[in-house]
Amino acid sequence: MLLRKIHILSILDVLFCYPTLRSILFSFLLFSAISIQQTIQQPFAQGNLAIVFDAKLGRTSDQQPLHANLTELWCQATETGEERLPVKSAKFMQVSNPTGHVRMHKAEVIHNRAHLHFGRTTPSAAGKYKCEIMVDSPSTPYVTGNLFVYMRPIFHVNSSTKLDQVNESAHFHFTSTTKVIRGNTAILVCPAIGYPVPKVEWFKDNEPLWKSDEKYVVMENDLHVREVDDPDTVSTYSCRARNRFPMEVDGPEEEYEAILDHHLKVSSSLAWLTPLIVIVILLILLFITIYTCAWFKRYRYAQYNVAQKEKCLRKAEEQNGDFEDE
Question: In angstroms, rounded to a whole number, what is the distance separating the alpha carbons of residues 71 and 310?
């Protein structure tokens, strides 16, 4: 303690003896205090950090989109976390979503708080949002903050893809059949969407597929199975999409999963020959039918002409007989 007091007194003696050094130190301390004060008083954004799109089924499409009721996101500008700063204008930008496009949303400002209302909406609402508020502050005219709409993994399919639930209670477990010609490459899709972006893993008969196996290649979440043959039809290829997020802002993270089981149906490379033969046979039958109808029509017309000629001859003979009698 005595040694520390001696050091402090020595520093004070130096500052007293050198006014220039004393002025520099005083200016530095004053500048630091002002910077700290400005940092403390600098406006920042606050709001409800996240809401959850409560998906009841793990399948959606553009033709039959899944729906859920969302409340709203809100944010406001503040300096201390207590009061709200006056808001000139506000907007929300959806910077991350399943479609990959940035969307602009106009905010509704009520009592200096910006609101983004959703109501009944589709999975496209899930993603990351940026709230941008313009405030009346010369130092920081704009305040921004990030908000989130969480959604567990679901599968977004088109009209050509058919997914069947494994059973009625498995709302996030589906199965699908993919047809492929023997020897070709089968492409098994995993159209998982959600926020945070789901992590996709592929399994074969519940065992992870290793990337070192040249027969299987994963490209953008889709599995390519090379040189498909009959033994491949016995196996089940599963796409498992997972993400994690808290149901409440301060709650623990929970893991969510959606599963899509693929089954392969292999056909011969000459499988096209059977429908071609059927088409040729149908064309031949159609030609025979048309030719028969035309021939029958001509035959009936010829028979009609013969009957008309015979009738005319009989009438002429009768007239000739009448003349001879006279």
Answer: 93
